[in-house]
Sequence to fold (79 residues):
Amino acid sequence: MKISSRKKVNFMVEKTVLKQLMLWIPAGDRSDFVNNVLGEALRAAARRKALEGIDALRDKYKIKMTTAEMIRLKNYGRE
Fold:
């Protein structure tokens, strides 16, 4: 990621989290570390939300397919 595409933000973290961050991650690497961890957490949250949506559709329409089968059907012809 380019430095120019970044934006300074202000948010609160627990004192224990900040203490561990300061102890374990060198000063020049903290922004990259936090950015990477937040990115991973956001991708995981998006996956969870998508799977919840699939489960809701399965329940609503009484679909008997597994999640893997639904994804394979969704991606049919795109490979």
